[in-house]
Structures are given as C-alpha cells and as structure tokens.
Amino acid sequence: MNELVGFVNGNNVRQKVLSLLASKGEMEGERISKTLRIVHLTIAKTLEELEEKELIAKKEEVYFLTETGIKVEKMVQQI
C-alpha cells in the first residue's frame, strides 16, 4: 500500500485526479481534463497509469476510484 501512496505522491497530476474522483465520484476523461485544466493527453496518460495500478477503473467512458484507490487517496490526504 505504501508503494501506491508513493506512486501517487510522486506526481502532482495523479494526486489531483484521485482527489477529484474522490470528491465527484465518477467522471469522463474529457471532463477530468477540463475541470483540472490539464491537457487531455496528459490526463489520458495519467488515467492509464492509475488504471494499471488498479487505483481507478473505467466503465464505458466513465472513470471511478476502486476500493484500493479510495484507501490510497485517504492516505495521501493525511500526508
């Protein structure tokens, strides 16, 4: 779990995406990009990385936090 916290903490965009999904529940990639005002290509790459680590999941075009993602996001907030 600490490895995942380090993975998220190591990148500001990852932190922002997890925090946003924690507060909003679920969102489409395009909406995440617009809300955070970060280039869509950067968001797409970040979403892919978070999905590979199983911190988020995707159903159709909507992303949401997994159980692990919820735990990691809470741990990151406490740091």
Characterise the protein shown here.
By secondary structure, the chain is α+β, with helices and mostly antiparallel strands. It is 68% helix and 14% strand. The protein has 5 helices and 3 strands, in the order ααβααββα. It has helices spanning 2-9, 12-24, 29-36, 40-52, 67-78, and strands spanning 26-28, 56-59, 62-65. Strands 1-3-2 form a 3-stranded antiparallel β-sheet. Helix 1 packs across helix 5, helix 2 (12-24) packs across helix 5 and helix 3 packs across helix 4. The model has no long low-confidence stretch (mean pLDDT 97).
Describe the secondary structure blueprint for this structure.
Layout: H1 2-9, H2 12-24, E1 26-28, H3 29-36, H4 40-52, E2 56-59, E3 62-65, H5 67-78
Antiparallel strand pairs: 1-3, 2-3
Helix pairs in contact: 1-5, 2-5, 3-4
